[in-house]
Amino acid sequence: MSDTEFDIIRRYFTRQQPDREDVITGIGDDAALLQMPAGMELVVSMDTLVDGVHFPRGTAAAAIGHKALAVNLSDLAAMGAEPAWATLSLTLPEADANWLAGFSQAFFKLADRFGVQLVGGDTTQGPLSITVQAHGFVPAGKSLRRRGAQVGDHIYVTGTLGGAGLALQLAGEAGGELQQRLDYPQPRIDAGQTLRGIASAAIDISDGLLADLGHLLEHDQLGAALSIDDLPRSAAFAETVKQGGADVRSQYYDLPLSAGDDYELCFTVPEALRGQLASVRQQLSCACTRIGIVEQQAGIRCHMADGKRYAMTARGYRHFGASPHG
Amino acid sequence: MSDTEFDIIRRYFTRQQPDREDVITGIGDDAALLQMPAGMELVVSMDTLVDGVHFPRGTAAAAIGHKALAVNLSDLAAMGAEPAWATLSLTLPEADANWLAGFSQAFFKLADRFGVQLVGGDTTQGPLSITVQAHGFVPAGKSLRRRGAQVGDHIYVTGTLGGAGLALQLAGEAGGELQQRLDYPQPRIDAGQTLRGIASAAIDISDGLLADLGHLLEHDQLGAALSIDDLPRSAAFAETVKQGGADVRSQYYDLPLSAGDDYELCFTVPEALRGQLASVRQQLSCACTRIGIVEQQAGIRCHMADGKRYAMTARGYRHFGASPHG
Question: Does residue A265 contact residue A155 with C-beta atoms inside 8 Å?
Answer without folding.
Answer: no
